[in-house]
Amino acid sequence: MISTKAYSLFLVSLALAFTSSLSFTAPVFTVKVTNNLALDSHPFTIRCTSSKLDTSSQVLFRGETYVLMFDTDQSTRWNCVIFSSSAKMTPFVLFDLDRDKSRCKPDGSCLWQINPDGFYLYVASIHKYQKQYKW
Fold it and tell me: Which residue positions does the secretion signal occupy (predicted)?
């Protein structure tokens, strides 16, 4: 027969073994911004920042995609600026966890298209792009 103390120690050990095998990582998101401007348009430059990180500027020609991968331990909000020689500087919120966790795809993909009339986000619940910002 097992003593109460030995049984309690067994349960604590079992609980510790179980919880140490679990992974408690923050959700990972992949945000993609695609230049979908007209064929004859100038490229644009994008630069994104969060409260903890700052990306370098990247020039996107038509059809090219900017990719930003992060977990929500790094940041829950990303602000970006897009500018080109033919358009004024346009700031926008690329990602906000509270706003976008239900709008992005279940796998954590958030898809943006920069079109001639504005910035569109693919909203997974309705399976289509919706205009979020205008130029």
Answer: 1-25
